[in-house]
Amino acid sequence: MHTRKNVKNLTAQEKKRLVDALLAVKKGGVYDEYVRIHHHYFVADGEPGKRFGHMAPSFFPWHRQMLISFENELRKVDDSVTLPYWDWTLDQGSGGTPPSPYTPDFLGGNGREGDHQVMDGPFAGRSGDWPITVQVTDDTFLMRDFGAFAGGVTLPSPADLEAAMADPVYDTYPYDSTISTRGFRNQAEGWTVGANVGWTLHNRVHAWVGGQMTGGTSPNDPTFWLHHAFIDLLWARWQKRHPAEPPYLPEQPIASGDPQYGRVVSLDERLEPWGVSPAQMLDHTRFYTYA
User: Fold this and answer.
1) R_g of the chain computed on alpha carbons
2) CB atoms within 10 A of CB 222
3) pTM: predicted TM-score of the whole model, two decimal places
4) Is the Cα torsion angle 35, 275, 45, 239 positive or negative in sign?
C-alpha cells in the first residue's frame, strides 16, 4: 500500500526520484506503450466499436487501471515512487505564473512562441531524453501552449468542479456525451451540450495545457499522470459524498437492440486491454490511498 500526494507537497527529492523513474521507463520503451494504448482506446461517441476509455461510463475505472499499471512500472524502477496529483483548481487564478507542477526541476514550463516547444526541465526536447515517437503530427518534441486553445481557456475553478461533484447520479442513459445534460461522469470528463461542448473540467485541463495534451496521445506529456491522478481522486471523493448512490452505472449489460448495445461497458464486463471490470476498480484503497 502506498500513498499518492498533492504535487504541492512533494519534496525536492521526491520530485527527482519521480522524474528519474519517468526517464527510465521512457528510455526502456515502456512509456510509449502507454501512449499507444491510450491513443488506440480513444474512441468517440460517433465512432463504431465499444467505448472503453472516453465518452463512456468506464472513463473512471479504465483510467484508474491505466494509472495503476503505469505506476507499477515506475515502482519497478524505484519502489519509493508514487504518482502525485495536481489539483488544478488551486492554480486556476495563477494568471501568467506557471502553476505548481511546471517548474524547471520538475515538469518544465510552457512552450516557446512559434513551435510551442518546451525548452526547460528534464522533458525538454533539447535534453534528448524525451523524444516524442507516438504522435499525430510530425513534431518530435514535447509541446505546450498554456491557455491559448480555441482563443483562450482558463483552468477550471472550484465552482466548476462543485457543479459536477454535487450531481448524485454517476451517469445517465443513453450514456452519450453529445446529448447528456447531467451525470457526474459526463460532467467530470467535460462533455456538455451547446456552444461550449467538450471543454469543461477534465477536457478543459487538457485544452489549457495544449500541445500533445489536446489529443489521444496526451500521455506524451507527463502532466497527464498528475492530471488523471486528480481525476481519479475526484471519483473517490464523489463516492464518499454520495454513499447511497450506485458508484457505477450501468450495472447490467445493455440489451441487444439498444443503440448502445456493444458500445458501453457495464459493471461486471471486462475493460480492454486491462482485463478487469469496473466492479473491481470501485475501491481505490485496495491499491493505494490519497494524502
Assistant:
1) 18
2) 24
3) 0.95
4) negative
What is the Cα–Cα distance from 184 to 110, expressed in whole angstroms?
31
pLDDT of residue 192: 73
Angle between helices 223-241 and 201-209 (to 10 degrees): 160
The residues, ordered by sequence, that sit 6+ positions from 245 with a Cβ below 8 Å of its Cβ are 168, 169, 170
Angstrom CA distances, 178 to 45, 51, 197, 206, 225, stand at: 8, 14, 8, 19, 26
Structural contact between residues 33 and 273, judged by C-beta atoms closer than 8 angstroms: no
pLDDT digits (tens, 9 = 90+) for 95-150: 556 678 999 999 999 999 999 999 999 999 998 999 999 987 788 999 999 999 87
Domain map (residue ranges) of the chain:
2-290
Mean predicted lDDT score pLDDT of the chain: 92
1 has a pLDDT exceeding 80: yes
3-state secondary structure of 44: coil
User: How many CA within 13 A on the CB side of residue 280?
Assistant: 12
Q: What is the pLDDT of residues 167-206, one digit of tens each?
A: 999 999 999 887 887 899 999 999 876 555 557 899 999 9
2-290 sits in which CATH class? Answer: mainly alpha
Half-sphere CA count of 201, side-chain side, radius 13 A: 22
**What type of residue sits at position 119?**
M
The residue to which cell 449489460 is assigned:
253
Residues with Cβ within 8 Å of residue 12, at least 6 apart in sequence: 105
